């Protein structure tokens, strides 16, 4: 594989509900170097629709962003929105590789909420433990084969943990259609938490909570030793905060957006109306984070306790939001920097730091295979 061949001819493409962002990197001596980046806001509602016209609009936006960023590559790695994809970590007895695929498929039937014919199933073995006596419970299902039936071939004292990923075929087709419509070829589609694990957490071993607080919602994941242990979504995000401020204070969406950015949760501004207005949305987000932490703590976690929470997504810049998380969860909450392990011209520093929270997924996509 040539250093400047394969890798350089792809870029990271992040199509979110509201925007298109691109980043291209090239391998460097110690860390990748930034080649190009760019982004634009999408026409309102276009990603929420499946009509030909809207998809074509999104394709056109992608084409424009790529052109403006002067990216010549035609291959991209793109992200699928976490909210559309089912993920779960399941525990099962260790078994020969040849039997794993069938067994996982059978297990997936119990867990994946939609028919398996309608999803693309992917899985990764993410851990191995000594089996607890109660660690594996046979899923209900009467005459279903028990994956433990082949006990003679199994190292039955071991359990494995498998991350199941089920992406609806319709969603994958939509992304492929948008990308091909822009004259590009998708090299790979991956879930957002994987990209974030790469750009935000990197090689850190200790468990870290990653919060992506975007526009349409928030995604919570716990990453440990490069592996995603858990992944959860909620619609409590920047859009919901703006709507809450707009309704509660009786101001239009633009004004509410400005209040959110300027004052955030500061109690000394506007007589504390913003913290009050946004409380229901933040309560939802906080309870989802708490559930994730509780779930993690209930599982075996040999790499220790969670001490750090890293927030990305545009909303993570809302004043006083991270201190609220630090206080609530008793862990250090800080803003993630996807550029930390990237070389770039020093003159770009200020702009890139401003874009950092919104470009975290995009940078992670561009880092794939580097
Ligand atoms: N300085 C700021 N303070 C508060 N909120 C901000 C700030 N800057 C951006 N935002 C909010 O961040 C959100 C956009 O974040 P981001 O770019 O991560 O979203 P997205 O990736 O397009 O959306 P999603 O991932 O939800 O589909 C918007 O709700 C915007 O209002
Ligand atoms: Mg996003």
Spell out the key features of this protein.
Dna Ligase, domain 1; Nucleotidyltransferase, domain 5; binds magnesium ion; five-stranded mixed sheet; 370 residues; 3 domains; alpha/beta; disordered N terminus; 10 helices
Please characterize this protein's 3D structure.
- The protein is of the alpha/beta class.
- It has helices at 52-68, 97-111, 169-181, 192-201, 238-249, 253-263, 273-298, 321-329, 349-355, 360-366; strands at 10-15, 19-26, 33-41, 75-80, 86-93, 119-130, 158-168, 185-191, 208-213, 218-224, 227-234, 308-312, 332-335.
- The protein has a five-stranded mixed beta sheet. It has a five-stranded mixed beta sheet with strand order 11-10-9-12-13, sandwiched between helices.
- Strand 9 (208-213) and strand 10 form a beta hairpin.
- Helix 4 (192-201) packs across helix 10 and helix 5 crosses helix 6.
- The radius of gyration is 22 Å and the shape is globular.
- The N and C termini lie close together (12 Å).
- Bound molecules: adenosine-5'-triphosphate and magnesium ion.
